[in-house]
Design brief:
alpha+beta; 3-stranded mixed sheet; two-stranded antiparallel sheet; 18% strand
C-alpha cells in the first residue's frame, strides 16, 4: 500500500547519483552544473557536512536581484543554509506533507550526519504513481480471478 512506502524505497529506485558543491563555488559555476546535468538542485557540502541546498529557486532569485545577470557571488551567499531533511525511514506521505507545507521541491535524505541522497517532488510523485498502478493491477487481477459463487442446493 502507498501509505507504508518509505524514502529508502525511492532512493533504491532512483539510484545513488548525487551532485554536490562547495559553498565557495561561484554561483555561475553551480548554475552551469545544474544546467549541464539537467538537475534542479545541488547539495552544498563543507568539510563532509551538509551546510545547505542550492535549487533553481535560489538561482532565479539571484538573477532577479542582479537585474537579469547571475552576478559574481558564491553559493554560500545564495543557498538555503537550513534545508529541511528527511531520513530513509520517513514515510512517503509525511514527505508529501512536508513538501507541500514548506514549498520544498528537494529534500536531502540523511542518516545521522551522512548524506544518502536527495529526493525531489518528481521522485515522490513518480513513486506514488507507480505504487498505485501496481496496486490497481493487483486488485484487477484479484477481481478477475474471483471464485464463482456456489449455488446452495436444497
Amino acid at each position: 500500500m502507498v501509505t507504508a512506502m518509505k524514502v529508502s524505497e525511492i532512493l533504491q529506485v532512483k539510484g545513488d547519483i548525487l551532485y554536490t558543491v562547495s559553498p565557495d563555488t561561484q554561483l555561475a559555476d553551480a548554475a552551469a552544473t545544474m544546467a549541464d546535468r539537467d538537475i534542479g538542485s545541488l547539495v552544498v557540502m563543507e568539510y563532509g557536512d551538509l551546510v545547505g541546498m542550492l535549487t533553481f529557486r535560489e538561482v532565479i532569485q539571484a538573477v532577479n536581484a542582479h537585474g537579469g545577470t547571475i552576478g559574481a557571488g558564491t553559493v554560500r551567499k545564495h543557498m538555503d543554509d537550513s534545508p529541511i531533511t528527511v531520513t530513509p525511514d520517513t514515510e512517503v506521505n509525511e514527505v508529501r506533507r512536508i513538501m507541500l507545507e514548506k514549498h520544498a521541491r528537494y529534500l536531502p535524505v540523511m542518516n545521522a550526519r551522512t548524506l544518502l541522497g536527495v529526493i525531489s517532488f518528481y521522485d515522490v510523485a513518480k513513486a506514488v504513481l507507480e505504487a498505485q498502478s501496481f496496486e490497481n493491477r493487483m486488485l484487477k487481477a484479484y477481481i478477475r480471478d474471483w471464485p464463482a459463487e456456489q449455488v446452495a442446493e436444497d
